[in-house]
Amino acid sequence: APPPDPCPEPGPGTFAVEPISANVRRPVEQGVYLFKQKGEIHVQITGLADFKQPVEGMTSRRVFGLQMDGERSRFTVDQTIGRRRAELSYAVTPGESIGLSKLVRHQKGGPVTFEPLTPVTVFPLPVAENMEVTGLGFDPRTQTTMVVQGRVEKKEEVLGCDEVVHGWLVKGTWTLQSPRETVRYEMEYVVATQHGGLVVRDTFRFSETETDQVPTTYGYDITTGFGSIKPKPDPEAK
After folding, report:
1. pLDDT of 178-210, one tens digit each?
2. What is the 3-state secondary structure (H, E, C) of the chain?
3. Averaged pLDDT for residues 62-73
4. Residue 75 confidence (pLDDT) above 80
């Protein structure tokens, strides 16, 4: 018999446990969430090779560092962007926005940190379809600017492993510009307001070039969606 599917598709009678909301009413649940990935990496090695590498399988994201201040909350998500780990820290202010308060990308030469003076808006609150998403932030330490431009397209049903979650689909770009590099992420992400503002699916499309012996360009188009909205306990939690 074939091995059991680690992530069975939801059946026709599967409904979202919690209805979607226009605002964030409660904080995110901390722990380790199961996610699934699908996509490809386009590898171009100058003068030597040009091929596409499929990406598929299960992964996890760790949600930690929850801090509450009245209705407001902050939390961090440990995930991958492309081939590398990254930590995205969010500041949730109900009635105002969800903002990116810190982004740490673990690059080949070590971590690259963007920490703006004020969080960069990535999602408006309360939210409605067709809302513009505009965010701007500056990190004086690294002289890095981040610009977010997008739109809340529609309510979206995201299929997990025998689970369904509804969220709000945003399409847009996140652009980071510093004296040493410009990184432009073409983004699609689905925010589940009823689960504390957790991103339950995202697509990152971007390219980066590494110059080792031979310059190599990696083009990413990877979608990562939740597997289960119920997190497992975090082994690293204090």
Report:
1. 998 899 999 999 999 999 999 999 999 999 888
2. CCCCCCCCCCCCCCCCCCCCCCCCCCCCCCEEEEEEEEEEEEEEECCCEEEEEEEEEEEEEEEEEEEEECCEEEEEEEEEECCEEEEEEEEEECCCEEEEEEEEEEECCEEEEECCCCCEEEEECCCCCCCEEEEEEEECCCCEEEEEEEEEEEEEEEECCCCEEEEEEEEEEEEEECCCCEEEEEEEEEEEHHHCCEEEEEEEEEEEEEECCCEEEEEEEEEEEECCCCCECCCCCC
3. 96
4. yes
